[in-house]
């Protein structure tokens, strides 16, 4: 049986919120090194997914919410974004109602595919604080050390 109740908030988010919960949090919690994972081939092949990868990964690293362990989750987010874009473009250029050979009419399956893509995107976005409710209460420090660390991470990825 799985754990009950809401999922615990990551320590990195609690620190950004300056939360009192940190006082009760176990000090032996695993805190992965903040880094931008290498872009996987499946994302590189998809123009929209790659654009979102290039946009969002530096932003998440900047606020300490991305590590190499997050590769699958951030890839899923970028792929879901690409699906939303691609299905929306399809729907912009094609009829939403299809007439069957029997004369009956029904909505194109692309509407359901786009709606599922939005659902997936929203689930992934919640894990990274990418919605107004998910990032409520987050604050980001802009100390020089933070800037130096981010510059180091980005220089390792671009070099």
In short:
With 159 residues, the chain is mainly alpha-helical. Helix content is 53%, strand content 4%. Strands 1-2 form a two-stranded antiparallel sheet.
Helix and strand arrangement:
Blueprint: H1 11-17, H2 41-44, H3 47-62, H4 71-93, E1 97-99, E2 105-107, H5 109-127, H6 144-158
Antiparallel strand pairs: 1-2
Helix pairs in contact: 3-4, 4-5
Explain this structure.
By secondary structure, this protein is mainly α. It has one domain. The chain contains six helices and two strands. The protein has helices at residues 11-17, 41-44, 47-62, 71-93, 109-127, 144-158; strands at 97-99, 105-107. Strands 1-2 form a two-stranded antiparallel sheet. Helix 3 packs across helix 4 (71-93). It is globular and about 65 Å long. The chain starts with 10 loop residues before the first helix and ends with a helix. The mean pLDDT is 83.
Which sequence of SSEs, written as H and E, runs from N to C?
Answer: HHHHEEHH
So what's the oligomer here? single chain
Question: Count of DSSP helices?
Answer: 6
Largest β-sheet summary:
2 strands, antiparallel
- Arithmetic mean pLDDT: 83
Low-confidence stretches: none
What gyration radius follows from the Cα positions, in whole Å?
20 Å
The separation of the N and C termini measures 45 Å
Strand line-up across the major sheet:
1-2
Structural class, by secondary structure, is: mainly alpha
Number of domains: 1
Number of strands: 2
Percent of residues in beta strands: under 5%
């Amino acid at each position: 049986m799985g754990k009950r109740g809401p999922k615990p908030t990551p320590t990195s988010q609690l620190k950004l919120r300056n939360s009192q919960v940190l006082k009760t949090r176990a000090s032996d919690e695993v805190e992965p090194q903040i880094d931008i994972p290498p872009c996987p081939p499946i994302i590189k092949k998809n123009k929209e997914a790659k654009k979102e990868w290039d946009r969002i990964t530096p932003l998440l690293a900047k606020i300490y919410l991305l590590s190499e362990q997050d590769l699958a989750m951030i890839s899923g987010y970028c792929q879901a974004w690409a699906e939303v874009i691609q299905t929306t473009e399809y729907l912009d250029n094609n009829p939403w109602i299809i007439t069957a050979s029997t004369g009956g009419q029904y909505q194109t399956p692309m509407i359901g595919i786009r709606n599922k893509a939005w659902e997936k995107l929203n689930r992934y976005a919640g894990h990274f604080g990418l919605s107004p409710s998910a990032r409520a209460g987050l604050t980001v420090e802009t100390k020089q050390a933070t800037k130096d660390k981010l510059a180091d991470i980005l220089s390792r990825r671009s070099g």
